[in-house]
């Protein structure tokens, strides 16, 4: 194996130092060693994080329409807390053509996120969903009305969770889950169902850190001209080149830019 150049070694050291500093910050948060105003703004799921095995992110393809930006923010949350994330694209029975769902699923599968295509009504994907939930404690998250409660009822009918319809006037979900609920599916399987979420605050994340939480940036970023490249306006940015060639999804990159804009 060829010896590392000085520049390559510097990049490795920089990456490892940044990773260690981010981990130390998370340790502080979970120990409660942060100011109260920060703790108050942390999403409840962040406080649960170290007691979870995975996050199941549910989005509906229609009624209400899919919110990829919210899915990406949940994925960022999973990356921050180092929790595996699974994406569930629900209500596919309402699609005349499944190709839009398959195209979206391909974007995330290409960066190693598992994706399920499900329908509580038709039964599509439910067996795969049962298998993913087994022997784990899972946080169930998503926008209101995406069908989280219906999926749980379909997986375990004995739960008999109340289900509300989507408002016909606004095409938005009506809150079924209004507080955190813990469902025990069997002796080794639990689901923490969280209320529908419209926005996730990342008060403890600085905009300079955003690039670390989009996993497809990691490999090409090694070839950026600047070690601290944010992949926005810098010259000789390998991540932007990867977007131009299609190696990185333009939709995911747009989501990244939107995410950066929301940070301090």
- Using only C-alpha atoms, the radius of gyration works out to 20 Å
- Total strands: 6
Instruction: Please write the CATH class name of the largest domain.
Output: Alpha Beta
Terminal Cα span? 42 Å
Helix content: 25-40%
The CATH homologous superfamily of the largest domain is named P-loop containing nucleotide triphosphate hydrolases
Mean of all residue-level pLDDT scores:
87
SSE map:
Elements (H helix, E strand, L loop, with lengths): L5 H26 L4 H6 L2 H5 L5 E7 L7 H14 L3 E6 L8 H11 L5 E3 L8 H8 L3 E6 L5 H8 L25 E6 L2 E5 L24 H4 L16 H8 L4 H12 L3
Parallel strand pairs: 1-2, 1-4, 2-3, 4-6
Antiparallel strand pairs: 5-6
Helix pairs in contact: 4-10
Overall description:
This protein has 264 residues and is of the alpha/beta class. It has two domains: 13-39 and 202-261, Ribonucleotide Reductase Protein R1, domain 1; 51-193, P-loop containing nucleotide triphosphate hydrolases (Rossmann fold, 3-Layer(aba) Sandwich). Helices cover 39% and strands 12% of the residues. The protein has helices spanning 6-31, 36-41, 44-48, 68-81, 99-109, 126-133, 148-155, 218-221, 238-245, 250-261, and strands at 54-60, 85-90, 115-117, 137-142, 181-186, 189-193. It has a six-stranded mixed beta sheet with strand order 3-2-1-4-6-5, with helices on both faces.
């Amino acid at each position: 194996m060829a010896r590392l150049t000085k520049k390559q070694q510097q990049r490795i050291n920089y990456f490892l130092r940044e990773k260690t500093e981010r981990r130390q910050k998370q340790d502080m948060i979970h120990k409660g060693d942060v100011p109260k105003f920060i703790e108050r703004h942390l999403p409840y799921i962040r406080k649960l994080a170290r007691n979870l095995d995975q996050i199941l992110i549910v989005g509906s393809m229609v009624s209400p329409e899919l919110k990829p930006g919210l899915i990406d923010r949940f994925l960022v949350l999973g990356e921050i807390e180092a929790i595996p994330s699974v994406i569930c694209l629900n209500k596919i029975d309402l699609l005349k053509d499944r190709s839009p769902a398959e195209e979206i699923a391909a974007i995330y599968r290409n960066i190693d996120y598992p994706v399920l295509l499900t329908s509580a009504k038709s039964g599509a994907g439910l067996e795969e969903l049962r298998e993913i939930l087994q022997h784990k404690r899972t946080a169930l998250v998503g926008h209101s009305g995406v069908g989280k409660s219906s999926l749980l009822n379909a997986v375990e009918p004995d739960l008999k969770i109340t289900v509300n319809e989507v408002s016909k006037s606004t095409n938005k979900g009506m809150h079924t889950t209004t507080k955190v609920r813990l469902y025990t599916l069997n002796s080794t399987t639990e689901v923490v169902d969280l209320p529908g979420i419209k926005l996730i605050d990342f008060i403890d994340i600085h905009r300079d850190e955003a690039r670390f939480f989009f996993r497809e940036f990691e490999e090409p970023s090694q070839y950026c001209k600047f070690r601290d490249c944010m992949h926005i306006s810098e010259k000789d940015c390998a991540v932007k080149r990867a977007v131009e060639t299609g190696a990185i999804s333009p939709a995911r990159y747009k989501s990244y830019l939107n995410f950066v804009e929301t940070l301090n």
